[in-house]
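Summary of Year 1 activities. Much of the first year was spent building the evaluation harness for sequence design. The harness presents a backbone, in tokenized form, and records the residue chosen at every position. We chose the following record to illustrate the format because it has been used consistently in internal testing since the harness was completed.
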């Protein structure tokens, strides 16, 4: 039960003040690594959230709850440094109005308001939330006297499109041994998606995750700072110890078991627990006293559900924000878990809370059971998944050359094996030969789309002046909008398209506009996808054409 007293303007809640005190290290860490902008954004979220809640509370004749400041600070800490304030304003509005006030105000919300608000803007503004990250400040004083860590002295702005954990998931960061002098001493800020793998020592990765000098959200990069506040919540009993232990314990066990069984891209226990702001969610968000269960058995199941869902969503979906969705999923099951917990909270005459060993053992048994199920499914389908991915790639290569026709997967595979070869002189492109003569190049392209990576093949004529066709084998864009890039009406525009010798090789113009050489129409309503496709297509083409020209000049 949350003890609270009232004043005319503010409902005083001592437990919320303890949570705010526990968040101080994270707020200061965001200031140190990313600049004064983090403090300004946090203050803005607090003031904006207070105002929005006041609009509803004054109608009910109630004071504003101090919980709104906890919501605002948590929401701000999960924002990327430098995110637009309009994004924060929209997210806080959703968190306060649609996640709490429409249900009657404090104590009546079904979902954690901060996470509900973040989820809303995560979907509405995916590029702002997942595609633009600022570097952490270097040096002993960090960004304590700077507005932003992204602004260099020469006026340029440094940003990257992925965090280290996202690069790890994509396979672009691999671990070496714990200590290896030949490897980089710090995590690289920018990694070319098409540039292969970068190997770092495990200690370099752990050091970055522990102390927070890595790209990420404003207050969730340093596991040490989060844990300082989390320990305070745990020791003082401000947050449920059962939920904290079951969430962290089950997630660590799930990840380690999957890692031992070689299920990619699961990173193992310590990178998973320390990275991606997991601890911030485990200590501060999963334990929300309103939207989390109240009985001990329900809290154990709730924690295991969050741990399992986090692992699945983080590693096997297009979303890296797995914990956010997992906690919201757990919130949905809270009422039914509490009902089940009330009916089964006693065992041999003693409550679950009086038998901690039973509770811990129960957690690990359930965790092991579900781990075995998912591992078995993943291992059983691993071979078929690899085959399907290979077939999709080969079919995309063939579709990039409109003259090639096939009806079955076996025909496509046979034609690919007979006519396509990956030769060193083609600099990463597959050489297409027909009747013993080079008939073109199949250039793989990839880059970040509106939601996730887009991967495809560009068919290029032997003289490298014409695009013969375009095909995609991986994309997760919006159905009916951005996903229409795979449809013939869009791809047919690239048949025999002249590559522009100056400027961008290919230009996407608004639908219905007049076209000239090297230009195609974009898809109406899919502006963000087309913008991202234009960037990745031209970057891949320009880099490859430059390498081929340099090689030709040397010869």
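For this record, the design step produced the sequence shown next.
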């Amino acid at each position: 039960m949350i003890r609270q007293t009232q004043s005319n303007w503010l409902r005083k809640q001592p437990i919320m003040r303890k949570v705010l005190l526990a968040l101080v290290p994270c707020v200061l860490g965001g200031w140190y690594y990313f600049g004064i902008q983090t403090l300004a954004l946090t203050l803005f979220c607090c003031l904006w959230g207070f105002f929005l809640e006041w609009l509803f509370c004054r109608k009910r004749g109630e004071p504003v709850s101090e919980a709104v400041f906890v919501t605002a600070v948590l929401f701000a800490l999960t924002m990327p440094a430098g995110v637009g304030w309009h994004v924060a304003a929209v997210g806080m509005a959703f968190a306060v109005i649609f996640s709490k006030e429409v249900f009657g105000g404090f104590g009546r919300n079904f979902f954690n308001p901060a996470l509900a608000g973040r989820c809303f803007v995560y979907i509405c503004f995916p590029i702002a939330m997942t595609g633009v990250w600022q570097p952490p400040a270097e040096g002993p004083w960090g960004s304590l006297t700077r507005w932003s860590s992204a602004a260099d002295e020469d006026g340029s702005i440094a940003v990257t499109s992925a965090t280290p954990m996202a690069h790890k998931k994509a396979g672009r960061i691999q671990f070496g041994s714990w200590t290896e002098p030949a490897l980089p001493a710090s995590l690289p800020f920018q990694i070319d998606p098409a540039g292969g793998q970068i190997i770092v020592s495990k200690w370099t990765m752990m050091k970055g995750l522990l102390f927070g000098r890595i790209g990420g959200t404003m207050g969730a990069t340093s596991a040490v700072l989060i844990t300082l506040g989390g320990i305070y919540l745990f020791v003082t009993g401000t947050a449920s110890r059962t939920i904290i232990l079951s969430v962290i314990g089950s997630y660590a066990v799930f990840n380690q078991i999957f890692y031992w069984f070689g299920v990619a891209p699961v990173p193992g226990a310590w990178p998973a627990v320390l990275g991606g702001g997991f601890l911030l969610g485990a200590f501060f968000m999963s334990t929300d006293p309103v939207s989390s269960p109240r009985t001990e058995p329900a809290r154990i199941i709730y924690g295991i559900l969050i741990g399992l869902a986090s692992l699945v969503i983080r590693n096997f979906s297009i979303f890296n924000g797995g914990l956010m969705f997992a906690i919201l999923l757990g919130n949905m099951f809270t009422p039914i878990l509490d009902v089940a917990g009330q009916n089964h909270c006693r065992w041999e005459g003693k409550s679950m809370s009086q038998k901690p060993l039973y509770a811990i053992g129960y957690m690990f048994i359930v965790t092991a059971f579900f781990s075995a199920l998912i591992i078995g499914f993943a291992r059983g389908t691993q071979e078929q998944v690899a085959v399907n991915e290979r077939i999709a790639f080969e079919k995309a290569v063939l579709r990039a050359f409109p003259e090639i026709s096939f009806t079955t997967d076996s025909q496509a595979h046979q034609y690919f094996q007979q006519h396509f070869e990956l030769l060193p002189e083609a600099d990463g492109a597959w050489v297409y030969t027909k009747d013993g003569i080079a008939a073109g190049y199949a250039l793989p392209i990839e880059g970040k789309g509106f939601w996730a990576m887009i991967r495809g093949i560009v068919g290029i004529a032997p003289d490298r002046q014409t695009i013969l066709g375009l095909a995609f084998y991986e994309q997760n864009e919006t159905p009916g909008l951005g996903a229409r890039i795979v449809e013939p009406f869009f791809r047919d525009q690239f048949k025999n398209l002249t590559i522009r010798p100056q400027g961008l090789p290919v230009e996407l113009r608004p639908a219905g506009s007049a076209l000239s050489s090297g230009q195609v129409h974009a898809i109406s309503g899919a502006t963000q996808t087309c913008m991202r496709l234009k960037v990745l297509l031209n970057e891949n083409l320009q880099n490859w054409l430059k390498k081929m020209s340099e090689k030709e000049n040397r010869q």
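The chain is about 50% helix and 10% strand. Quantitative recovery figures across the full test set are reported in Table 2.
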